[in-house]
Amino acid sequence: MANPASAPAAIPVSPLCEMQGVSHWFQLPSGQRLEVLEDVSLAVNPGEVVALLGPSGCGKSTILRILAGLITPTRGQVRYRGAALDGLAPGVAIVFQSFALFPWMSVAENVRAVLTAARLPEEEVAARAADAIRMVGLSGFEEAYPRELSGGMKQRVGMARALSLRPEVLFMDEPFSQVDALTAEALRAEVLDIWAERESNPSSILLVSHDIKEVAFMADRIVVLGANPGRVRTIVSNTLPRPRDYRSPEVLALVDRLHDLITGHELPDVPAAAAAATEVLPQAGANEIVGLIEWLAARGGREDVFRIAAETNREFGHLLTIVKAAEMLDLVDTPKRLAVLTPEGRAFAAADPDGRKAHFRKKLLELRIFSDVRDALLEEPSHRLDRDFVLETIVLRMPAEDYERVFAVWVGWARYADLFAYDEDDGTVTLQEATAPAQTPA
Ligand SMILES: Nc1ncnc2c1ncn2[C@@H]1O[C@H](COP(=O)(O)OP(=O)(O)OP(=O)(O)O)[C@@H](O)[C@H]1O
Description:
The protein is of the alpha/beta class and 442 residues long. It is built from 16 helices and 16 strands. It has helices at residues 60-68, 107-117, 122-135, 151-164, 181-197, 212-218, 249-266, 272-277, 286-298, 305-311, 316-328, 343-350, 353-364, 368-379, 387-397, 403-416; strands spanning 17-27, 33-44, 49-53, 75-80, 83-84, 92-95, 169-173, 204-209, 221-226, 231-237, 302-304, 332-333, 338-341, 384-386, 420-423, 428-431. Strands 6-7-8-3-9-10 form a six-stranded mixed beta sheet, sandwiched between helices. It has a four-stranded antiparallel beta sheet with strand order 2-1-4-5, with helices on one face. The protein has a three-stranded antiparallel beta sheet with strand order 11-13-12. Helix 2 (107-117) packs across helix 3 (122-135) and helix 15 (387-397) crosses helix 16 (403-416). Residues 26, 34, 36, 54, 56-62, 210, 402 line the site of adenosine-5'-triphosphate.
């Protein structure tokens, strides 16, 4: 469906939403600053669909919240229709990933609730709610309760709530990541139909996603973000005619290009030792890393990372995280867009569980956040440390990271490697048998 307003404009358009030179950090309870965004500038123009694409944790949702006026950035300017934002952006409504429905209210009541909160007169509330419910294809379900609805239908209610506010810009934060793949395809097409129809419908859409196919299908411009801290890597314009077909050679070529761009950014061709030196623990579970190595070994030891994601049914960004973790442990190498087992990776795949744990242990102890804790535990007469010691080590080594998330990964890896045990009840870390002093040569 061609959208006239998305055609290239002869005169420069002024943006609806805009941020310039925005940096943002969160103050963590430890007093540390978590730098989330660095010097981000971007705009959403009338009539366009803009997607924010990037790895988990790069700050996509934070950008969306800043543009919506839910968060005031630490530094930089935010405008709506050219005016500095003061409070919530007037023409914006948001569809959240989590649906955010009131379970005790029916479909109609859920939609009416946001309109009542917006202080619209009662007749207007009823008319707009009915209109929005029809628009998202939920006529006949007005009296149903969220528990009676499928994930896709719940998200339709989320969309009806946002659309009933008649926003100029619809913000969608990973709206389809919790619904099944076929429903997601249908919902994306329906959103674009609503957007293309116009009249009182949103002029523009800002979509947060980590699904490359989704952004290639939906967006006019794709803002590719990098992480730690989040920043704009590049902006890719997508002028493919609508309606688009996921399987068309043009869409597949764009998916491939975006895939190359992200793989190049996220898995740069640097030696594993250099990657490990940065000491960022990728948010991947030990079992996921082991799963990847076994999967690769069963397929001759090498595969395109995009294909691995598709065949293992994993979100591409998360798969990259698992590959990064495996690379950090010297189990894979990542030339271009391939994940290739290293000789150590092959040996790992062939080893028995104890051999695998021994490899993990050896590699973890090459990282300071594990070796520092091991040294401290050996020194401590009780060979027991409070988790705060580990948290401080994490904050010291990785000040830009969310230390609770890192700690969860740290515990998982250390447990798998039989390196440390963590007792959730008393919050203490102890050496595991394999590394306990009696068995550690002096
Ligand atoms: N209120 C907050 N306080 C502290 N840290 C926060 C807060 N909100 C977000 N963060 C952190 O900021 C970073 C960016 O979060 P954000 O949700 O914007 O990323 P994202 O790219 O949307 O991630 P995802 O794709 O996983 O949802 C993360 O490390 C997150 O843990």
